[in-house]
Amino acid sequence: MMDVKERIDDFKTLNEMGKSGGVVFFGSSYFSRMNINELANNEEMGGKIYDRSVQGLKLVDSLKLLESGVYELNPAKVFVNFGEEECSSENFNMDEFINKYEWLLLNLYRNCKNSKTYIVSVVASGKNAADANSRLEALAKETGCTFINVTKEAFENLGFEKVFNVLKPYMRVFPVSFAQAMQMA
Prior knowledge:
Blueprint: H1 4-15, E1 23-27, H2 29-33, H3 36-40, E2 49-51, H4 59-69, E3 77-81, H5 84-87, H6 94-111, E4 116-120, H7 127-143, E5 146-148, H8 152-171, H9 178-184
Parallel strand pairs: 1-2, 1-3, 3-4, 4-5
């Protein structure tokens, strides 16, 4: 079980070396398993990349980590990914899940005024995950966020490296040159 206080202390220590204006990954199990260090060392990204994800973190506990995990870094972009744990729960309540997600987005909007927020789809299988992704896509449109669909099937077929390639165009914190745009086409 995750110790929230311990994670807050870890994030505060890491943030002492952090720089504002970067990219923050904030989520649960899916993001915590990604090797963000490879992206962080990729010079073509043009900015710092920070992973503030926690294995097994649920939306209900995520608000406790926003201050130390995200706000202190004053990011240019925030990638949010929650729902694996919630969708696999026997007593999953879709409306409650979406309300908590909306509350998380509102808090990000209020405290990270210059950030762009991206909602990355729930990476799980089953009807709950599919329904949650439909609702999250609608929520993204309602709130001015961008929805990135990386389903569990796509993840399993693509692997981490290819998923990075799906996320990379969204992660740049500087304008793309014509040559780079042509490489992405």
